[in-house]
Design a protein that fits this description.
The chain is built from 17 helices and 23 strands. It is of the alpha+beta class and 496 residues long. The protein has 2 domains: 241 residues, Nucleotidyltransferase, domain 5, CATH 3.30.420; 212 residues, Nucleotidyltransferase, domain 5. A hairpin with a 3-residue loop joins strand 15 and strand 16.
């Protein structure tokens, strides 16, 4: 953050799974101190597997945040040269011919289409589709979601003129028209990642045409000319470029300086992910995904359903109390000294093996086992799953990359950060960028404006470094193998 901002400024809108933020960044990718707004919300979830929210309500929350930023910025707002947006992915909303929503905004976490995903896998060659699109035929992605709509709501299906992501829907409300970036489209599972066009075989399978989807553009193709009432509401923003929304994961990599293979992003919030940006188009590793940042950059990685939710569940279940004392107790335990092997799937599994609704397992309990040991074993178990993803990303043990860590679960637990370093055998560097996702969105906009020659020209700030201890790393390899064997015994149809 800074007190003196160098123009041009970028107004960023970051719409995530729990809040929307609006911030200002200057021409060097620095967040302008004291100017920002945030609105929190909750995605509606049900026991049936729904995960949805009213798209118009989300748009209005974003608009209120923009209102507050412009009000606080005062004269500084005249230096805003562009608006850049990132959103949660994957999301979908159906609209009619007049652009009015027919459905809620449904997020990647909605699992009501599990049967449709299984049906697609039974009739299509998932490996071929994975190679073409970088995505699997799973509940998170559009093919299964659209098949579900067609099956359970045929009348709605016939009325739907377009299927949009959240970023597109925001543009539609603000400009009366919309496009979709390669980045956002790549998270749908319907983008041919080589040709950068909608995947014709999948569209045919779903009885759709490209007219049911938005035109594809890169993230540097802006719109201008807000509709009323937004043109009158934000006159300073009416004539400046608004860039199409990109995926929040891609933005987070860019904002934390993870723009090549030397720096991989390790994110651990409620859930987790490891992501790497690369310029070459390579086969998608088994069980992982390959999305897009832009026309020249791929985002390859894997996401987990386990993360800080595991830490929180164990702490709450055993009433471990004060976090500082808990951390001290965890640090005093030797690595893998508890005799436990855990499959930490309290919320099912995504990468690397996509076992779906599989449940967690704690193996090796005795009368001598303590709650603190269960917590330590659980944190280690999550790290083991990341080790499998990281190995598939890297492909060889002599990779020299660093892992750049972000997310509240890691930042609040130095013990867990050290566990990750020891398990993965690599330095874990804590990102010092407080708003890496919004920063990445701003950097891409600055590059598009020509104000930034390259993404590397605005290096990210780093914080504390956790170095691996070789003896611990060696010890953890045996524990990873134990977990693999337990997984293969209990979940044989998914074990790779």
């Amino acid at each position: 953050m800074l007190h003196f901002a160098e123009s041009p400024l970028i107004l960023t809108i970051d719409i995530g799974t729990s809040s929307v933020r609006a911030l200002l960044f200057d021409s060097r990718g620095r967040m302008v101190e004291g100017i920002g707004a945030q609105a929190r919300y909750e995605i509606l979830t049900t026991s049936a597997g729904a995960a949805e929210v009213d798209p118009d309500w989300i748009v209005e929350q974003a608009a209120h945040c923009v209102d507050r930023v412009l009000a606080v910025a005062g004269k500084l707002a005249t230096q805003i040269a562009a608006v850049a947006v990132d959103t949660l992915v994957t999301s979908i909303v159906g609209v009619d011919a007049a652009g009015q929503p027919l459905t809620p905004l449904i997020t990647y976490a909605d699992t009501r289409n599990a049967g449709d995903a299984a049906a697609l896998r039974a009739t299509l060659d998932e490996a071929t589709i994975h190679d073409r699109t970088g995505c699997l035929l799973r509940t998170s992605y559009w093919p299964a979601r659209l098949a579900w709509f067609r099956r359970i709501q045929p009348e709605l299906w016939r009325r739907a003129a377009k299927w949009l992501t959240l970023g597109e829907y925001l543009e539609l409300r603000l400009f009366g028209r919309c496009r979709v970036s390669y980045s956002a489209a790549s998270w749908s599972g319907l983008l041919d990642r080589r040709q950068l066009v909608w995947d014709a075989p999948l569209l045919a399978e779903l009885a759709l045409t490209p007219d049911h989807l938005s035109p594809l553009v890169d993230c540097d193709a802006p719109l201008t000319g807000l509709l009323q009432p937004y043109a009158g509401r934000w006159p300073l923003l009416h004539g400046i470029p608004w860039f199409p929304a990109i995926g929040d994961g891609a933005a987070a990599n860019v904002g934390s300086g993870c723009i090549d293979h030397q720096r991989m992003a390790l994110t651990l919030g409620t859930t987790g992910a490891i992501r790497v940006i690369q310029t070459e188009l390579t086969p998608t590793p088994p069980g992982l995904w390959s999305y897009r940042v832009d026309r020249d950059h791929h985002l390859v990685g894997g996401a987990t359903s386990e993360g800080g939710n595991v830490y929180a569940w164990v702490r709450d279940a055993f009433q471990l109390g004060d976090r500082t004392q808990t951390e001290a107790g965890l640090a005093a335990l030797e690595p893998d000294s508890h005799g436990l092997t855990i499959l930490p799937f309290f919320a099912g599994e995504r990468s690397p093996d996509w076992a779906g609704n599989v449940q967690a397992t704690i193996h090796g309990l005795t009368l001598a086992t303590t709650p603190l040991q269960i917590l330590r074993a659980s944190l280690e178990a999550v790290a083991y799953r990341f080790a499998v993803i990281e190995q598939r990303l890297c492909g060889r043990p002599d990779c020299d990359h660093r892992l750049i860590a972000s997310g509240g679960a890691l930042l609040q637990s130095p013990v867990w950060s050290q566990i990750f370093a020891d398990v993965l055998g690599r330095p874990v560097v804590v990102s010092a960028e407080a708003e890496a996702t919004s920063r990445g969105t701003a950097l891409l906009a600055l590059r598009a404006l020509g104000a930034l020659p390259s993404l590397a020209a605005a290096p990210a700030a780093d914080g504390a470094v956790f170095l691996p201890v070789p003896a611990r790393h060696e010890r953890y390899q045996a524990a990873i193998e134990r977990q693999r064997q337990l997984y293969a015994r209990l979940i044989p149809t998914h074990a790779s």
